[in-house]
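Sequence only, no structure available. Ideas?
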Amino acid sequence: MDIEKSSGLILHPTSLPSKYGIGDLGKESYEFVDILNDSKTKIWQVLPLGITDNIEYSPYSSKSSILGNPYIISLDEIENQIFSKNELEKIIIPNSNEVDYKKVYNNKDQIFKHISKRVNIDEKDYQTYIENKIKKKHITFLTLSEIFDTSWNEWDYDYQNYSEELFDLVCDKYNDTFTKNLFLQFEFDKQWQKLKSYANKQNVRILGDIPIYVNHNSADVWLNKDLFDLDDNNKMSYVSGAVPDDFTVEGQVWNTALYKWDNHKEEGYKYWIEKLDYNLNNYDYLRIDHFVGFFQFWAIPENEPALNGHWRTGPWKTFFDVVSKSIDFNKLLAEDLGVVLQETADVLSNFNIPGMKVLQQRVPNDNKHNEIHPKEWNFNIVAYTGTHDSPTIKQWLNEVDDIQIEFFNKYKESSSSLYESDVWNFISLVWESPCQLAVTTIQDLLELGKEARFNIPGTKEKNWVWRLEDLDILKNIKKDLKKLNKYTDRA
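Reply:
I predicted one. Tokens follow.
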């Protein structure tokens, strides 16, 4: 990554305070950028910003790899003020430390339904926007998905494949829904680019996140059926997941679509090049989730447990050489956790892509181990205390065994800046490492416990809900963070 030694914080925009029950791209986002700038923290890491489903609300399973989540648009920032003050006051939700997604989405849907009567999509700005071919196709899918409210493979034959004729039909027959979706995506892009521009001017860069896999019920699969592992009825015969390991003894079933990598190779990995290029226009840097899936991946028969899966080989022998000719790999970060392969290490080294180390996973739990002290980690690494999938540091300290606590105590003895708080000692170990980028979460800066954990992999309820009630609680912490950034030469 083309950044100097620096630090970053993970905070998904949904976790910001706001008066509508969910963090958005409004004034609190700008205030958070100011906090990052004041503390000399140069990276804001977000999770995928795409449309979530209405069941698990996971940002990692979206209907589109390129469209934005309309529910995090700032209603107060919409320039033409198409919603009245009275309408907005009706959907105000008192600040709390959790997002009630069902309530928030229902509230916003009630006012979104008025958009088509108040917006003229024949205006130049909207017509210019929809000239983008990828946007045009994905918004067409989004509209049809909303109209039919079923998976695309259950739609009538006339809607199975995109064409200009189908686009015209959708615009005409389902104009209200199409207009709403076009307007919301236009607003999302405008607001996000404005926020990103402000962040960059404040010396803050945005690290985005892209899942390796996509939801079967997505524009990506609908538009590129031949690139995905589907049966004759366009259903998934096999689904993605994770092999059983020490952390999840039964493995994980993700239920996202697998790729037909030979078909990707034949078209020169065009789909991936377009997807990476589009996302790199939205972010300064991009983390690729489950990077090892390019090397080998776990294929699980549909509706069967992860234990019944098997290994398949990924496209790594040709993928990186081809894609690197079109994509700036200096902007990429690889989430290379899990299965350790020499091929992965070689590719990361050859293309100078940093991998990840997570301290929670690197504190030994056995006296016989091959772990090294964080001060001996390499520079070309992004070092984390934990991730959005991890326990908070406080929870980790309360739950790990005595051997890990013993090793942690030995590690911190070498720290140059001991704190009264072991949570901050944990953070300091990562900051004092030689790694290019050191990252923690807002929950850990606030020394919160398991009640603030953002996601528990393999579970479906009460994830992605934690949020800040007030940004003022970060005012004192940002002074400590600034001090640590300066002391460790990350300012």
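The chain has 19 helices and twelve strands.
Hope that gets you unstuck.
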